[in-house]
C-alpha cells in the first residue's frame, strides 16, 4: 500500500479547516442574519488589510509606506490578501444591503 505524500495530507487538512470556517460562518449568519454577514465581511477586510500592512513593518507610520514602496514589485505574494479583502468587501456590501432591506421592510 502506497503512503500519500505529505503535501497531499496537508492539502486535505487545509480543506478541512476551510470547510470548518465556512460552517462556522454559516452558523453565525444563521444566528444573526444579515448583520452577521456584515460582521464577517468587516472582520475579513480588517484582518487582510492589517496582515498586508504589517508584513514587513510591525508599526504604523512612515515605515509602512517605505516598506510598501520597496516591495512594490512583489505583487504575487500580496495577491491572496487582495483577493480575500475583496471577498470581505463583497460580504460587507451584501450584509449592508440585506440589513437595509430588512429594516426597509419593517417600516
TrEMBL record:
Q: Which protein, by its recorded name, is this?
A: Uncharacterized protein
Q: Does the keyword Transmembrane helix apply?
A: yes
Query: Which spans are transmembrane here?
Result: 7-28, 34-53, 83-104
Say which species the protein is native to. Answer: Teichococcus wenyumeiae
What superkingdom does the record give?
Bacteria
Q: What UniProt keywords apply to this chain's record, in alphabetical order?
A: Membrane, Transmembrane, Transmembrane helix
Is Membrane given among the entry's keywords? yes
Amino acid at each position: 500500500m502506497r503512503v500519500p505524500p505529505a503535501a497531499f495530507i496537508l492539502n486535505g487538512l487545509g480543506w478541512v479547516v476551510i470547510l470548518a470556517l465556512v460552517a462556522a460562518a454559516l452558523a453565525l449568519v444563521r444566528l444573526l442574519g444579515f448583520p452577521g454577514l456584515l460582521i464577517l465581511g468587516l472582520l475579513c477586510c480588517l484582518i487582510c488589510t492589517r496582515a498586508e500592512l504589517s508584513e514587513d513593518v510591525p508599526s504604523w507610520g512612515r515605515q509602512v509606506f517605505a516598506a510598501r514602496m520597496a516591495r512594490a514589485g512583489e505583487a504575487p505574494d500580496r495577491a491572496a490578501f487582495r483577493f480575500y479583502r475583496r471577498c470581505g468587501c463583497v460580504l460587507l456590501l451584501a450584509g449592508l444591503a440585506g440589513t437595509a432591506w430588512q429594516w426597509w421592510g419593517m417600516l
